[in-house]
Every structure is written in structure tokens, then in C-alpha cells.
Amino acid sequence: MKRKLTDKTILITGASSGLGFELAKKCAELGASIYLVGRNEQRLARIVEECGALGAKEVKAYSFDLTALESIPGLITQIEEESGGIDALINNAGFGLFERLDQTPEKTVQDMFSVNVLALIALTKAVIPLMQKRGHGHIINIASQAGKLATPKSSIYSATKHAVLGFSNSLRMELADEGIAVTAINPGPIDTAFFELADNSGSYTKSVKRWMLSPEKVAAKTVAILFTTKREVNLPGWMNLASKLHSLAPGLVERAGKKGFNQK
């Protein structure tokens, strides 16, 4: 029997497509109240309709550009007031671009850190006092295996995900005695529109297509650990093993994996 979330309110960022959309659907199927943040207003409207049909107790969407960091506290205040309380925040919004650092525009660097790191921190900082008042909450940060094992042409993206993991690990200890759990989700490549931007040549996508995770599987694994104290979810297992080996023998792994790492 599936666990129900009818008494829970869940805020999901990056909900316009891909993994965010699948997370919203999974939460809807369990009867949660869902508050969605994304940039594409038309897509959000369709997702609201679909989640309502799937059984969401309540669903509402906000078209919002997360690079507007100064407006994030106001957004959280609005959602808190309209929802009656945020039980879980899933920081899913993010993007990547696979190219050499010397070919990456400065604005791309700034925008990637703004969305992947600074917005995530701002959203988290804004919800923590609200969760502290109620004595419970769950913050789930969608990081990446790239945050554990960096590869060529992903220096900025990997740096942002390293930051998310470091942030999550520290925050988890800060909040451990306050009833607020912090979980990092570290997936490998997911078969979503993420790669339409990240890999505009299509070469990397083609080379790893058979290894890509389905967004439905990642969403199911993520929703399954909601309101638990799970520290991390690492997908797929073999890729996580490679990152563990890298932590023990980085030079060896980088030499052995050079050909594969340079497929981008």
C-alpha cells in the first residue's frame, strides 16, 4: 500500500519540465498539496491541471525567475501564507552547459551559480525559520554525481554541484536536533530536456543514452524518502561506486576513465 501525503505541503522548484514535473506527479498521486515554481507559465498551467487530475489535494504554481535572488524571501512568504505551511522543499531547479571553461561566457557562469547554488541557498534559508517554528520539515536538494566526480567540460556545473553537496552536508548537521531533515539526491545523467541546453552538439547524449536514468525512476526514489532521515540517494549504483573509488584513488580513476570522461 502506498504511503499517503495528504497532510503534507510540498514546494518543488524547477517544476516546468523534466524531473520537476515527474516529482510533482508522484507527489500528486500520493495526495499531497503541491506548490510549484518554474519559469514557463504555460507549462506550469498544464502541470497544475494534470496534477489535479492525478489526485493532488491542492496544487498551485508560480511563474518565477530564480535569478531574482532578492525576491525569493517574498515568494516564500507568499507561499507560506497561501499554503498554511511548507512541510518539504525540493530544490530541483538547475541547469548545466558542457563546454570548456575558456569558451564559457561569464554570464553563463554567473547564471549557473545563481540558479544552481545561490537560489537554492536563498530558498532554503527562507523556509528554515518556518520549519523551525513547527518543529519539523524536510529539505531535499537535487545535486548530482557530477558533484562527487567532476569530468572535463563541466567545470562550472560540477563546481555548483560540489557546492550543493557541501552546503547540504553542513546544513544537515546544523538542523539535526531541530526535526528538520536534509537529503541530497545525486543522480547521474537523466533523460530529460536538460541536455538540449547542456549538450547542444548532441555527442555526449548519444554516447551515454543507454546509461541515462529515467526521470520517473529518479522522481520515485526521491518521493519515497520524503519525511525520512535519509542522508543521500545515489543513482545509478555503478556510477556512485566510481565516485567512491575516485575519493580513494583519484589519479588512478582519472587515468583509467580519461577516454570516457572526454566523450562530451
From TrEMBL:
One of its GO terms (molecular function) is oxidoreductase activity, acting on the CH-OH group of donors, NAD or NADP as acceptor. InterPro entries: NAD(P)-bd_dom_sf, Sc_DH/Rdtase_CS, SDR_fam. Keywords: Oxidoreductase. PROSITE patterns: ADH_SHORT. GO terms for cellular component: membrane. It comes from the Bacteria. PANTHER family: DEHYDROGENASE/REDUCTASE SDR FAMILY MEMBER 7B, DEHYDROGENASE_REDUCTASE SDR FAMILY MEMBER 7B. Belongs to the short-chain dehydrogenases/reductases (SDR) family. This is Oxidoreductase. The lineage of its organism: Bacteria, Bacillati, Bacillota, Bacilli, Bacillales.
